[in-house]
């Protein structure tokens, strides 16, 4: 289905009303892509929450494209969770941004910049993109944690769960956003919506954290569920898949190429210790719409 070209905005526009946007998903992780490269508007947390509340534009993450800040990049991208909080990384959203930038282009590579750094995105198939997500970070200040710990690959964090093995000693990883990865024998057995919020807000994480349950099936396959910071349990989390694969490889549980199976589908993660993490997976366009002026009345109220 030909996708109508997203009308780039004239610089006079200073509100989001009537703004065209793309509704997409990355393995069911609900993404809205908003192109503000020709305006100076910075989306506020209230506006992000208002867009999330707008019926057709419900999202897990909002990816806002701004004018490039660095030479050789296509856009600077700000990432909002549906609670209005900002994040430094969103793997699924980055694939959707690459799709939006490259869809009417003969280029196969797009470079976007986020608060966490540069992301080189390659179209490797119809609606399939491979993103260099950069190097994972493990220092307590980078994750970040509230204080130093003996080993960030086994954090001092435990939750006893009646009738199930305790969640204990998760791996701490930053992919530009904070992740705690618990390795478990049966990821489906846990009531993640009951357990997730307390862990997301644990005092060990001064900026909260994304909480994963990783079940290593074999050295090439991990089943993963993610309670996302600022969004709750999603059908897929790209940076979470990167963090889980990196943590498994660091613990000697997986090979350098891992298929991470999330509820919404699979991502291929490539990582060699000391290098960067490559994530490959789909980006799906759903529909295009505009935000009605009514959405932005009294958001300050
Ligand atoms: N909730 C995350 C951002 C979105 C990550 C996820 N949707 C992905 O695909 O990486 C955070 O606050 O760090």
Automatic annotation (TrEMBL):
GO terms for molecular function: diaminopimelate epimerase activity. Substrate binds at residues 29, 61, 81, 91-92, 177, 210, 228-229, 238-239. GO terms for cellular component: cytosol. Keywords: Amino-acid biosynthesis, Cytoplasm, Isomerase, Lysine biosynthesis. SUPFAM superfamilies: Diaminopimelate epimerase-like. It catalyses: (2S,6S)-2,6-diaminopimelate = meso-2,6-diaminopimelate. The active site is at 90, 90 (proton donor), 237 (proton acceptor). Its EC number is 5.1.1.7. InterPro entries: DAP_epimerase_AS, DAP_epimerase_DapF. It is found in: Cytoplasm. It is an enzyme of class 5 (isomerase). Gene3D superfamilies: Diaminopimelate Epimerase, Chain A, domain 1. Pathway: Amino-acid biosynthesis; L-lysine biosynthesis via DAP pathway; DL-2,6-diaminopimelate from LL-2,6-diaminopimelate: step 1/1. Homodimer. Belongs to the diaminopimelate epimerase family. This is Diaminopimelate epimerase. It comes from Pseudochelatococcus contaminans.
């Amino acid at each position: 289905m030909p996708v109508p070209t997203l009308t780039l905005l004239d610089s006079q526009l200073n509100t989001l009303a009537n703004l065209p946007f793309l509704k997409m998903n990355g393995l069911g992780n609900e993404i809205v892509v908003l192109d503000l490269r020709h305006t100076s508007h910075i989306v506020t947390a209230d506006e992000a929450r208002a867009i999330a509340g707008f019926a057709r534009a419900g999202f897990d993450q909002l990816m806002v494209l701004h004018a490039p800040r660095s030479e050789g990049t296509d856009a600077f991208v700000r990432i909002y969770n549906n609670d209005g909080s900002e994040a430094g990384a969103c793997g699924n959203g980055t694939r959707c941004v690459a799709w939006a930038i490259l869809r009417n282009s003969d280029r196969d590579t797009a470079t976007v910049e986020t608060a966490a750094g540069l992301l080189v995105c390659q179209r490797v198939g119809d609606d399939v993109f491979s993103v260099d997500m950069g190097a994972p970070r493990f220092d307590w200040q980078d994750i970040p944690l509230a204080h130093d710990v003996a080993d960030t690959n086994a954090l001092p964090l435990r939750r006893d769960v009646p009738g199930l093995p305790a969640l204990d000693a998760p791996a701490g990883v930053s992919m530009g956003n904070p992740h705690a990865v618990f390795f478990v024998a049966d990821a489906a057995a846990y009531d993640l919506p009951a357990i997730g919020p307390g862990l997301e807000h644990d005092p060990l994480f001064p900026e909260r954290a994304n909480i994963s349950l990783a079940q290593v099936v074999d050295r090439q396959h991990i089943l993963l569920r993610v309670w996302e910071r600022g969004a709750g349990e999603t059908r897929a989390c790209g940076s979470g898949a990167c963090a889980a694969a990196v943590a498994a490889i660091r613990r000697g549980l997986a090979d350098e190429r891992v298929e991470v199976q999330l509820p919404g589908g699979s991502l291929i993660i490539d990582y060699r210790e000391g290098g960067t993490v490559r994530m490959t997976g789909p980006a799906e366009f759903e529909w295009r719409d505009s935000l009605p002026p009514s959405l932005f009345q009294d958001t300050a109220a």
